[in-house]
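Give me the fold.
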Amino acid sequence: MSLPSSFFLPNTHCVQAFAANSQLNTINIPRGVLIGTDAFAGSACADPSIFAAGHTIINCVVVGGPTAPTPVPPRAPPSAPPTAGPVAAPCVGQNLARKRPTEASDDAPHSRAAVDGDPDTEWRFGGRSYLVVDLVTVERVEEVTVAWGRRFPRGFVLTFYDSAAQMWRDAVRETEGVGGEQVFPVSFSARYVLLGVENLDNTYGLLKEIEIRRCN
């Protein structure tokens, strides 16, 4: 799956430009680019080794490349996210996430279990993990359902890629997760939706399914 980018590095001069601008949150580094060891010393990312040739980095997380290291989790944006919480009754509409392509920080081949429509399969993840669902085309999204297994995170965030602004935006930020099935009303249009784990009490967590819907 090819993720969008808001900054492209054709040469080492652009690499130095990124180091001087910590506000850039998405970067593609082509294969074969020579990068100085101190080129990213001034960036907001804790681990400068993630800036390697062939990598795609979003909010200090490596989401693409031949050898992706353990990613640093995405940082919260400066603006406050919209308030959202569980609702009693879900809307009726097609699950736009079912059988769609996924990218994940942990156990990527099995991340498809989160969108296969089968509640008996699970994606296993560690702390500070993420899962990206590619809806293939830009879709109107009005509800997201997250169904956790017996181990679940206390804190997580649902973000979407705003292609017009070329940046990721928060739709939901949960700090008191209770597990089970959580349903969130949202309102945005996007192709890419990201679930990021921020606070996990256990050594690993289990996600049964993520459903993304447009209400009919």
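Strands lie at 26-28, 56-58, 61-64, 102-104, 123-125, 130-148, 155-162, 167-174, 181-199, 205-213.
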